[in-house]
Each structure stands twice: as C-alpha cells, then as structure tokens.
C-alpha cells in the first residue's frame, strides 16, 4: 500500500513470468503529484517465490506553500505548447491526436524564437500556449548550435530575506543535456544548479512526449530575491547537436516553510 499525501493506493498483487532473475527496480508514480519512488529487489538467486513488500508510505516533497507552478506533474510534456508542423512534413495520422508525433517539431523553436528566447510571466502567460514543449538548441549555422536560456518572471511582494525558497524542477525527458538554474543574474557562476550532462532517452528525436524522469530541488536563499519582480533563468548548455535538449514536466516555487504546518 502506498500512501501519497491524501491519496492512498493499494496494490494487492502482481506477477512476473519468464523473467531473467536479477536485481530489479520497482518504481511508482501518481498523476498529479511529484513522485519519485524506487525499491530495489535482488532476485538473482531466487527461482520462484512470493515477496511481501509490506506497507510503504511516501510523502511527496514539500518544504513550503506553493507560490506558483507551471505544468502538471504527470511525467509528460503533453500539456505544453506543441506547434504545428512544417507543411512539408505533415503526417495526416496525427492532425487531431498525438500532435507531438509530427516530424521536425524541434526545428520550430528557432522559427518562433529566432533571436530572443522564451520568456514566461507568472500570472500572465499560459503554459498551454506560451511554454514550448521542449527546450532545444537554436541552429545559427550549418551544424552550429547555440544554447538557449528561458526566463520565468514572477513577483514577490514581501521577501523573507532570512528564509529559504525551494524550486522543484521535474523533467519529463533529457537527452545529453545540461540544465543550469540561476536567479536574477543570467551570468552567475556557479549557478544555483548545474545537472551536468544527463539523459540519453532521445525522446525529442523519436517524436515522444516523455522519456526518463528526473527531479531536481533547488534551494534559493531569500537574500537572492528582490521585493517585486524576479527572474529565474533556465539554460540548456550543451550545443553539440540539435537533439540535445530537455522536456519539462512540472516546475514549482515554494515559499519558506510555515510554522503552523498549513501548506
């Protein structure tokens, strides 16, 4: 039985047949929650058996109240803006469903943002219309690519300078990409987060809308925030080829923890 916050899910039993006995990983997720749970089972020396996992309780990560969020935590980028395909590449099978399966959608980013990158304003922008489904490179020459930096603009009226704010960044896919996160200074070195090169699921090139899930937590000291408008900079730093990029699943900013426990 998995207890995910207010949701409780009971798994009675399941079976696996004709499988290669080895060390296995059991992963779970619940749509609508940031979830990353994994249990390792070593079955390398077992031929047949019943395994009782017992009761497993998992609390979704949470440090403070939600100030804003982008997307839906469902391990997919399907809710974000998916552009129309180049007329040369239209596949009639996907005109009314699974639009993300159209060929060459990654090239549309540079057409929509030829010079300046995506800017999303909390409370004004709509992630279904204004958040491109994949953060990819911009081609600036023959097989020459430029990294892209997206901005999230938001306001905080009363900043707790002594507190800590928490940014949750869940990725639906990553292909040999590096995500860097900065606050209010696009050139800050080091950034608040640098993932290093991660992923290799090739979801962008394979016309998928999700790959392997990644979850990152970024602590933002209140001293780095301003009363009024602030900007988070999200940079995809790898530029070797057109398919180095990421798909976001969900982004959430949490305020400092509440003493009364009401989140």
From TrEMBL:
Residues 66-253 form the Rhamnogalacturonan lyase domain. SUPFAM superfamilies: Galactose-binding domain-like. Pfam families: CBM-like (PF14683). Signal peptide: none annotated. This is Rhamnogalacturonan lyase domain-containing protein. It comes from Solanum stoloniferum.
